[in-house]
Amino acid sequence: MIRTIEWTEAGVVRLLDQTRLPEEETYVECRDAAAVASAIRRMQVRGAPAIGVAAAMGLALGARQIRAEAFDPYFAELSRIAGDLAATRPTAVNLTWALTRMKQVALKHRDLPIAGITTRLEEEARTMWAEDLKANQAIGRHGEPLLPAGARVLTHCNAGALATVGYGTALGVVRAAHALGKGIRVLADETRPFLQGARLTAWELHREGIPVTLVTDGMPAALMARGAVDLVLVGADRIARNGDVANKIGTYGLALACRAHGLPFYVAAPLSTLDPTLPTGAAIPIEERSPEEVTTLAGRRIAPAGVPALHPAFDVTPAEYVTAIITERGVARPPYSASLAALLGAGPDR
Ligand code: MRU
Fold this sequence. Notes:
Blueprint (H helix, E strand, L loop, with lengths): L4 E3 L5 E4 L10 E4 L2 H9 L6 H17 L6 H16 L6 H16 L5 H30 L8 E4 L14 H10 L5 E5 L6 H11 L5 E4 L4 H6 L5 E4 L3 E3 L4 E4 L2 H11 L3 E4 L5 E2 L16 H4 E2 L2 E2 L12 E4 L6 E4 L2 E3 L3 H9 L6
The structure holds 5-S-methyl-1-O-phosphono-5-thio-D-ribulose.
The site of 5-S-methyl-1-O-phosphono-5-thio-D-ribulose (MRU) has 18 residues, from helix 2 and strand 9.
Protein backbone atom coordinates (compact mmCIF):
# COMPACT_ATOMS: atom_id res chain seq x y z
CA MET A 1 0.00 0.00 0.00
CA ILE A 2 1.14 3.55 -0.74
CA ARG A 3 2.14 5.15 2.57
CA THR A 4 1.10 8.77 2.04
CA ILE A 5 1.28 9.64 5.75
CA GLU A 6 2.76 7.68 8.62
CA TRP A 7 3.20 8.22 12.34
CA THR A 8 6.46 6.33 12.85
CA GLU A 9 7.47 4.37 15.94
CA ALA A 10 9.91 7.16 16.71
CA GLY A 11 6.96 9.57 16.88
CA VAL A 12 7.86 11.35 13.66
CA VAL A 13 5.33 12.22 10.95
CA ARG A 14 6.59 10.84 7.66
CA LEU A 15 5.05 12.18 4.46
CA LEU A 16 5.57 10.89 0.92
CA ASP A 17 6.80 14.03 -0.87
CA GLN A 18 4.24 14.49 -3.66
CA THR A 19 6.15 17.36 -5.25
CA ARG A 20 8.87 14.85 -6.22
CA LEU A 21 6.63 12.21 -7.80
CA PRO A 22 6.77 10.48 -10.20
CA GLU A 23 10.56 10.88 -10.55
CA GLU A 24 11.48 10.17 -6.95
CA GLU A 25 9.87 8.38 -4.04
CA THR A 26 11.24 10.45 -1.16
CA TYR A 27 9.85 11.27 2.24
CA VAL A 28 9.66 14.39 4.41
CA GLU A 29 10.11 13.78 8.14
CA CYS A 30 8.27 16.26 10.36
CA ARG A 31 9.18 16.64 14.02
CA ASP A 32 7.06 19.69 14.83
CA ALA A 33 3.84 21.39 13.80
CA ALA A 34 5.64 24.05 11.74
CA ALA A 35 7.23 21.36 9.55
CA VAL A 36 3.81 19.80 8.89
CA ALA A 37 2.28 23.22 8.14
CA SER A 38 5.07 23.90 5.67
CA ALA A 39 4.60 20.50 3.98
CA ILE A 40 0.87 21.19 3.55
CA ARG A 41 1.48 24.71 2.23
CA ARG A 42 4.08 23.45 -0.27
CA MET A 43 1.76 20.59 -1.29
CA GLN A 44 4.24 17.88 -0.32
CA VAL A 45 1.09 16.39 1.17
CA ARG A 46 -2.17 17.35 -0.55
CA GLY A 47 -5.73 16.17 -1.09
CA ALA A 48 -8.48 17.01 1.38
CA PRO A 49 -8.52 13.89 3.60
CA ALA A 50 -4.71 13.63 3.62
CA ILE A 51 -4.19 17.21 4.77
CA GLY A 52 -6.82 16.70 7.49
CA VAL A 53 -4.95 13.72 8.95
CA ALA A 54 -1.55 15.38 8.46
CA ALA A 55 -2.76 18.49 10.30
CA ALA A 56 -4.10 16.38 13.18
CA MET A 57 -0.70 14.68 13.46
CA GLY A 58 0.98 18.08 13.22
CA LEU A 59 -1.11 19.34 16.13
CA ALA A 60 -0.16 16.24 18.14
CA LEU A 61 3.52 17.01 17.45
CA GLY A 62 2.93 20.64 18.45
CA ALA A 63 1.20 19.62 21.69
CA ARG A 64 4.34 17.77 22.77
CA GLN A 65 6.33 20.98 22.68
CA ILE A 66 3.96 23.10 24.75
CA ARG A 67 5.59 24.03 28.05
CA ALA A 68 2.54 24.73 30.21
CA GLU A 69 1.54 23.15 33.48
CA ALA A 70 -2.09 24.23 33.61
CA PHE A 71 -4.83 23.41 31.10
CA ASP A 72 -5.84 26.96 30.13
CA PRO A 73 -2.42 28.14 28.88
CA TYR A 74 -1.89 24.68 27.32
CA PHE A 75 -5.17 24.95 25.44
CA ALA A 76 -4.50 28.54 24.37
CA GLU A 77 -1.19 27.47 22.82
CA LEU A 78 -2.78 24.37 21.25
CA SER A 79 -5.44 26.61 19.65
CA ARG A 80 -2.75 28.94 18.31
CA ILE A 81 -0.90 26.03 16.68
CA ALA A 82 -4.20 24.71 15.29
CA GLY A 83 -4.85 28.17 13.81
CA ASP A 84 -1.47 28.13 12.05
CA LEU A 85 -2.16 24.67 10.60
CA ALA A 86 -5.70 25.65 9.52
CA ALA A 87 -4.40 28.73 7.68
CA THR A 88 -2.24 26.66 5.32
CA ARG A 89 -4.99 25.82 2.80
CA PRO A 90 -8.47 27.31 3.05
CA THR A 91 -10.75 25.25 0.79
CA ALA A 92 -10.52 21.67 2.10
CA VAL A 93 -12.82 21.57 5.12
CA ASN A 94 -11.23 18.32 6.31
CA LEU A 95 -8.43 20.47 7.68
CA THR A 96 -10.59 22.46 10.10
CA TRP A 97 -12.75 19.40 10.76
CA ALA A 98 -9.69 17.44 11.94
CA LEU A 99 -8.28 20.29 14.02
CA THR A 100 -11.64 20.98 15.69
CA ARG A 101 -11.94 17.30 16.56
CA MET A 102 -8.44 17.35 18.11
CA LYS A 103 -9.27 20.41 20.22
CA GLN A 104 -12.46 18.73 21.41
CA VAL A 105 -10.40 15.75 22.57
CA ALA A 106 -8.16 18.08 24.59
CA LEU A 107 -11.21 19.74 26.16
CA LYS A 108 -12.76 16.37 26.98
CA HIS A 109 -9.61 15.30 28.84
CA ARG A 110 -8.91 18.64 30.49
CA ASP A 111 -8.78 17.03 33.95
CA LEU A 112 -5.86 14.75 33.01
CA PRO A 113 -2.24 15.81 33.60
CA ILE A 114 -0.91 17.72 30.57
CA ALA A 115 1.22 14.75 29.44
CA GLY A 116 -1.90 12.58 29.48
CA ILE A 117 -3.78 15.03 27.23
CA THR A 118 -0.88 15.06 24.79
CA THR A 119 -0.93 11.25 24.67
CA ARG A 120 -4.68 11.33 23.95
CA LEU A 121 -4.05 13.75 21.06
CA GLU A 122 -1.48 11.41 19.52
CA GLU A 123 -3.92 8.53 19.84
CA GLU A 124 -6.70 10.59 18.25
CA ALA A 125 -4.55 11.56 15.25
CA ARG A 126 -3.65 7.90 14.71
CA THR A 127 -7.32 6.94 15.04
CA MET A 128 -8.17 9.46 12.33
CA TRP A 129 -5.57 7.81 10.11
CA ALA A 130 -7.19 4.41 10.58
CA GLU A 131 -10.70 5.83 10.13
CA ASP A 132 -9.76 7.51 6.86
CA LEU A 133 -8.53 4.24 5.39
CA LYS A 134 -11.70 2.46 6.52
CA ALA A 135 -13.90 5.25 5.13
CA ASN A 136 -12.19 5.04 1.74
CA GLN A 137 -12.66 1.29 1.58
CA ALA A 138 -16.36 1.77 2.42
CA ILE A 139 -16.64 4.49 -0.28
CA GLY A 140 -15.17 1.94 -2.70
CA ARG A 141 -17.76 -0.68 -1.72
CA HIS A 142 -20.69 1.74 -1.99
CA GLY A 143 -19.50 3.32 -5.24
CA GLU A 144 -18.32 0.29 -7.19
CA PRO A 145 -21.86 -0.78 -8.32
CA LEU A 146 -22.16 2.60 -10.11
CA LEU A 147 -19.35 1.62 -12.50
CA PRO A 148 -20.59 -0.67 -15.28
CA ALA A 149 -18.24 -3.44 -16.46
CA GLY A 150 -15.76 -2.04 -18.95
CA ALA A 151 -16.52 1.58 -17.97
CA ARG A 152 -14.23 4.32 -19.19
CA VAL A 153 -14.00 6.62 -16.17
CA LEU A 154 -12.70 10.14 -16.53
CA THR A 155 -11.20 11.68 -13.39
CA HIS A 156 -9.66 15.03 -12.55
CA CYS A 157 -6.80 15.91 -10.18
CA ASN A 158 -5.89 13.12 -7.77
CA ALA A 159 -8.50 11.70 -5.41
CA GLY A 160 -6.52 8.55 -4.82
CA ALA A 161 -4.32 6.90 -2.22
CA LEU A 162 -2.07 9.95 -2.41
CA ALA A 163 -4.90 12.33 -1.48
CA THR A 164 -5.88 10.24 1.54
CA VAL A 165 -3.99 8.00 3.96
CA GLY A 166 -4.50 5.20 1.43
CA TYR A 167 -6.88 3.62 -1.13
CA GLY A 168 -8.52 6.92 -2.13
CA THR A 169 -12.04 8.24 -2.62
CA ALA A 170 -12.77 8.50 -6.37
CA LEU A 171 -9.86 6.15 -7.10
CA GLY A 172 -11.01 3.97 -4.18
CA VAL A 173 -14.21 3.34 -6.17
CA VAL A 174 -12.06 2.53 -9.22
CA ARG A 175 -9.86 0.20 -7.11
CA ALA A 176 -12.90 -1.65 -5.74
CA ALA A 177 -14.32 -2.15 -9.26
CA HIS A 178 -10.90 -3.19 -10.61
CA ALA A 179 -10.51 -5.73 -7.80
CA LEU A 180 -13.77 -7.34 -8.95
CA GLY A 181 -12.34 -7.73 -12.44
CA LYS A 182 -14.77 -5.26 -14.02
CA GLY A 183 -12.27 -4.12 -16.65
CA ILE A 184 -12.37 -0.44 -15.70
CA ARG A 185 -10.24 2.00 -17.69
CA VAL A 186 -9.35 5.45 -16.37
CA LEU A 187 -8.82 8.64 -18.34
CA ALA A 188 -6.79 11.01 -16.17
CA ASP A 189 -6.92 14.76 -16.81
CA GLU A 190 -3.41 16.12 -16.49
CA THR A 191 -4.77 18.89 -14.17
CA ARG A 192 -2.84 22.05 -14.89
CA PRO A 193 -1.04 23.76 -13.30
CA PHE A 194 0.12 21.39 -10.56
CA LEU A 195 -0.34 18.28 -12.75
CA GLN A 196 -1.83 16.05 -10.07
CA GLY A 197 -3.41 13.91 -12.82
CA ALA A 198 -0.26 13.46 -14.89
CA ARG A 199 2.14 13.08 -11.97
CA LEU A 200 0.06 11.43 -9.24
CA THR A 201 -3.09 9.72 -10.58
CA ALA A 202 -1.17 8.22 -13.49
CA TRP A 203 1.62 7.10 -11.11
CA GLU A 204 -0.56 5.39 -8.54
CA LEU A 205 -2.84 3.63 -11.05
CA HIS A 206 -0.05 2.55 -13.41
CA ARG A 207 2.03 0.99 -10.60
CA GLU A 208 -0.99 -1.12 -9.62
CA GLY A 209 -1.75 -2.22 -13.15
CA ILE A 210 -5.04 -0.31 -13.39
CA PRO A 211 -5.32 0.84 -17.02
CA VAL A 212 -4.86 4.61 -17.20
CA THR A 213 -4.56 6.98 -20.16
CA LEU A 214 -3.46 10.56 -19.73
CA VAL A 215 -5.46 13.34 -21.41
CA THR A 216 -4.98 17.11 -21.35
CA ASP A 217 -7.52 19.31 -19.57
CA GLY A 218 -8.89 20.57 -22.88
CA MET A 219 -9.86 17.11 -24.21
CA PRO A 220 -12.79 15.78 -22.13
CA ALA A 221 -15.74 17.42 -23.94
CA ALA A 222 -14.41 16.28 -27.32
CA LEU A 223 -13.83 12.76 -25.98
CA MET A 224 -17.39 12.69 -24.63
CA ALA A 225 -18.73 13.82 -28.02
CA ARG A 226 -16.86 10.89 -29.59
CA GLY A 227 -18.42 8.46 -27.13
CA ALA A 228 -15.07 7.71 -25.46
CA VAL A 229 -16.16 8.46 -21.86
CA ASP A 230 -18.85 6.65 -19.86
CA LEU A 231 -18.85 8.73 -16.68
CA VAL A 232 -16.88 11.28 -14.66
CA LEU A 233 -15.83 10.47 -11.09
CA VAL A 234 -14.02 13.03 -8.92
CA GLY A 235 -13.26 13.79 -5.27
CA ALA A 236 -14.19 16.91 -3.29
CA ASP A 237 -12.61 19.46 -0.99
CA ARG A 238 -15.81 20.77 0.54
CA ILE A 239 -19.48 19.95 0.04
CA ALA A 240 -22.19 22.37 1.16
CA ARG A 241 -25.45 21.16 2.76
CA ASN A 242 -27.31 21.48 -0.57
CA GLY A 243 -24.74 19.31 -2.40
CA ASP A 244 -22.71 22.07 -4.11
CA VAL A 245 -19.20 20.64 -4.49
CA ALA A 246 -15.85 22.45 -4.34
CA ASN A 247 -13.09 20.51 -6.08
CA LYS A 248 -10.00 21.15 -8.20
CA ILE A 249 -10.39 23.92 -10.77
CA GLY A 250 -11.76 22.39 -13.96
CA THR A 251 -14.26 20.12 -12.21
CA TYR A 252 -17.23 22.41 -12.92
CA GLY A 253 -16.51 22.35 -16.65
CA LEU A 254 -16.51 18.55 -16.57
CA ALA A 255 -19.91 18.53 -14.86
CA LEU A 256 -21.31 20.85 -17.54
CA ALA A 257 -19.86 18.68 -20.28
CA CYS A 258 -21.42 15.58 -18.66
CA ARG A 259 -24.82 17.29 -18.63
CA ALA A 260 -24.48 18.24 -22.29
CA HIS A 261 -23.64 14.64 -23.22
CA GLY A 262 -26.08 12.89 -20.90
CA LEU A 263 -23.31 11.29 -18.81
CA PRO A 264 -23.28 10.70 -15.03
CA PHE A 265 -21.12 13.00 -12.92
CA TYR A 266 -20.22 11.33 -9.62
CA VAL A 267 -18.44 12.75 -6.56
CA ALA A 268 -16.80 10.48 -3.97
CA ALA A 269 -15.93 11.91 -0.55
CA PRO A 270 -15.97 11.03 3.14
CA LEU A 271 -18.54 12.80 5.32
CA SER A 272 -15.67 14.80 6.86
CA THR A 273 -15.70 16.73 3.54
CA LEU A 274 -19.28 17.84 4.19
CA ASP A 275 -19.52 21.31 5.72
CA PRO A 276 -22.86 21.39 7.53
CA THR A 277 -22.35 25.07 8.41
CA LEU A 278 -22.72 26.14 4.75
CA PRO A 279 -26.18 26.08 3.16
CA THR A 280 -24.75 26.47 -0.37
CA GLY A 281 -21.37 26.52 -2.08
CA ALA A 282 -21.43 30.31 -2.45
CA ALA A 283 -19.55 30.82 0.82
CA ILE A 284 -16.85 28.18 0.21
CA PRO A 285 -13.47 29.95 0.37
CA ILE A 286 -11.51 29.38 -2.83
CA GLU A 287 -7.74 29.19 -2.43
CA GLU A 288 -5.88 31.60 -4.70
CA ARG A 289 -2.41 30.26 -5.46
CA SER A 290 0.60 31.94 -6.97
CA PRO A 291 0.22 32.95 -10.66
CA GLU A 292 3.78 31.67 -11.07
CA GLU A 293 2.45 28.11 -10.91
CA VAL A 294 0.55 28.99 -14.13
CA THR A 295 3.22 30.98 -15.94
CA THR A 296 5.84 28.28 -15.38
CA LEU A 297 5.95 24.55 -16.05
CA ALA A 298 8.42 22.24 -14.28
CA GLY A 299 10.37 25.32 -13.18
CA ARG A 300 10.54 26.85 -16.70
CA ARG A 301 8.74 30.04 -17.69
CA ILE A 302 6.21 29.33 -20.47
CA ALA A 303 4.52 32.76 -20.72
CA PRO A 304 6.06 36.08 -21.70
CA ALA A 305 7.50 37.97 -18.73
CA GLY A 306 5.04 40.57 -17.44
CA VAL A 307 1.87 38.72 -18.52
CA PRO A 308 -0.34 38.20 -15.48
CA ALA A 309 -2.09 34.89 -14.78
CA LEU A 310 -5.06 33.83 -12.68
CA HIS A 311 -4.87 30.89 -10.31
CA PRO A 312 -8.01 29.99 -8.36
CA ALA A 313 -7.14 26.44 -7.24
CA PHE A 314 -10.75 25.19 -6.91
CA ASP A 315 -14.20 25.71 -8.38
CA VAL A 316 -17.72 24.99 -7.17
CA THR A 317 -20.00 22.65 -9.11
CA PRO A 318 -23.68 23.40 -8.42
CA ALA A 319 -25.57 20.43 -6.95
CA GLU A 320 -27.93 20.30 -9.94
CA TYR A 321 -25.09 18.85 -12.06
CA VAL A 322 -24.10 16.17 -9.55
CA THR A 323 -25.67 12.76 -10.27
CA ALA A 324 -24.72 11.24 -6.89
CA ILE A 325 -22.33 11.70 -3.96
CA ILE A 326 -20.67 8.49 -2.77
CA THR A 327 -19.80 8.49 0.95
CA GLU A 328 -18.63 5.88 3.46
CA ARG A 329 -22.21 5.53 4.66
CA GLY A 330 -23.84 5.11 1.29
CA VAL A 331 -24.74 6.97 -1.90
CA ALA A 332 -26.58 10.30 -1.64
CA ARG A 333 -28.90 11.32 -4.48
CA PRO A 334 -30.72 14.62 -5.05
CA PRO A 335 -32.20 16.41 -3.21
CA TYR A 336 -28.94 16.50 -1.27
CA SER A 337 -30.17 18.62 1.62
CA ALA A 338 -32.26 15.60 2.67
CA SER A 339 -29.99 12.74 1.55
CA LEU A 340 -26.74 14.15 3.00
CA ALA A 341 -28.46 15.05 6.28
CA ALA A 342 -29.81 11.49 6.48
CA LEU A 343 -26.33 10.02 5.93
CA LEU A 344 -24.79 12.35 8.52
CA GLY A 345 -27.32 11.17 11.06
CA ALA A 346 -27.00 7.55 10.00
CA GLY A 347 -24.59 6.41 12.71
CA PRO A 348 -21.62 4.09 12.27
CA ASP A 349 -20.33 3.26 8.78
CA ARG A 350 -21.70 0.15 7.19
O1 MRU B 1 -4.82 21.06 -4.54
P1 MRU B 1 -4.98 19.61 -4.17
O2 MRU B 1 -4.10 18.70 -4.92
O3 MRU B 1 -4.93 19.41 -2.67
O4 MRU B 1 -6.48 19.31 -4.63
C1 MRU B 1 -7.00 18.05 -4.41
C2 MRU B 1 -8.34 17.84 -5.00
O5 MRU B 1 -8.94 18.73 -5.59
C3 MRU B 1 -8.97 16.52 -4.74
O6 MRU B 1 -9.86 16.18 -5.76
C4 MRU B 1 -9.75 16.58 -3.41
O7 MRU B 1 -8.95 17.07 -2.38
C5 MRU B 1 -10.28 15.26 -3.04
S1 MRU B 1 -9.03 14.17 -2.54
C6 MRU B 1 -9.69 12.71 -2.03
